[in-house]
Amino acid sequence: MSSLRKSRLLLMIFSLALGAAVITQAVLTAEAVQRIFVEQATLDSIMLLLGTLLAVMMIRTLLMYGNGKVGLHMAARAKTQMRAIVLQHLTRASMFSSLQGQTGGKVSVALDAVDEADSYFSQYTPRMMEAAIIPILLLTAAFTLHANTGWIMLCTAPFIPLFMILVGLQTKHKSEEKYEQLALFSGTFLDSLQGLVTLKLFGRAERQQQEIERSSLGFRDATMSILKIAFTNTFMLEAIVMLSIGIVALELALQLLVFQSMTFHTAFLVLLLVPEFYSLLKNTGTAFHSGRTSMGAIRKIEHMIEETDMSSHLIQSRPEATGASDENASASSVSSVAPTIELESLRFHYGTAGFELNIQQLELRAGEQIAIVGKSGSGKTTLLHIISGLLQPTSGTVLINGRPFSQSREADWFSQISYITQHPYIFAGTLAENITIGAWKNVSRQDIEEAAEQAGLAGMIAGLENGLDTPVGEAGRGLSGGEKQRLALARAFLKRPAVILFDEPTVGLDLQTERILQRSITSLARNATMITVAHRLYTIQQADRILFMADGVLTDQGTHQELIQRLPAYAEMVHMQQKGGIA
């Protein structure tokens, strides 16, 4: 903020000096014309005058350059700060808000919208500072030289800012619409690129191409609407300026030729100042249009930040500090003891008419091995997401060691858990870099190697020329499904969480790979609470307690034998698995 105030003070000083330079240039030009064409002075006698005029013109050029340079520096600093704020909000937002919206739309705001805000600082702010100072100086000079001209300028000048305001309001609305279309187009385009293989396999690539074309045409129409307003704005400003200058010129001609009440020198000087006055207002109008367009981009950034804050109910409890110190503080506050998790009167629904989860009372004791079973769509994964903190319940409470989850720092909870899905995301980078994502503190090379060995990756790594430094492609390209799961387990071994959540990570793997993973999972869960969305009978039988879900409701809970005896739906599910040979 202090640097911004300094820049504005510098703009004000430059604008004052620029106003003085404009008036001085007009005075010297009028004097040179008077002496050459009226007084018939020799060239030698006016060399000093012409030299001074040239120096003033150079000073004016340097001042205009300085104003522009200050504006560019302001824009660069502002864009850096805005981009940092956007990234900070995205990284520190709750997991629930991070899951909302399209990735492409967020990328569009962080890159395109921030860049579009440039003209507000580089053009709009310097021009507005000039418009606040120089026209007053020119108007004062006009009143001093010829009062009638001053009154004409004073009466006609308000039409320019009035028209600017009317156009600017419409431009801001159109600009916001433009960035909505850009975010939609960016999101659709990025989604299509990420799912291009799937689209081709299902023969939907051509239809998605049409969807991208529709989004791009919407963005084009929004952009053309702004350009239409810009061209109209330019035409109207030119018309107003030319009409105003024409009125002043007519009045000066009458005073000079008809009434002969003023000299040529004065009339010519006034005629030099008047176009400067209106030209400055016209340029301000153009800059105002660009500024309002930039305001639409800035409003889009603010809107995204507001949405992030609203959906992130933990945002107020987070500390302001970021970086390694915050991360280490979170890690230091983590308890290695598995917590007790309680759900009370919990409800969650996807939309008003969508699926609803309803859990009246559930306690998950520390160190338990819990399996969640039920048919597809019964709410198993939704329940796991709520326990993990990925989703916020519509109503009800999640208690961690008797304390409401909403009163805890999200980072503290995530530092205690590991969530391994069926398709863990593998980033572009080395194997070691992907494993260390699970670390909440500085780890040694030996720690990474031990985590990889415990996850069953030692054999694979030993066969690679670069070992842990072997690069893998984005989304794990080059790794098999089992290797991706073991890499995710290695992250968990490095982290040593108190709570481990599994969304049946062994589904779709061959029997040998599944057994390797099961041994690793058993080893990892010895000192932790493990909650698994289970499909395999082997996993279900090994659980301390089984939660049976049906249509979003916790129907029953108990051991494998207890549920077989008292819950026909569970007994039928087990029978179908045994009949199908799924063990």
TrEMBL record:
Localization per Swiss-Prot or TrEMBL: Cell membrane
Domain ABC transmembrane type-1, first and last residues per copy: 9-293
Membrane-crossing segments per the record: 45-65, 128-145, 151-169, 229-250
Domain of life of the source: Bacteria
Pfam family, one: ABC_membrane
Gene3D superfamilies linked to this entry: ABC transporter type 1, transmembrane domain, P-loop containing nucleotide triphosphate hydrolases
Name listed for the protein in its UniProt record: Thiol reductant ABC exporter subunit CydD
Organism: Paenibacillus barcinonensis
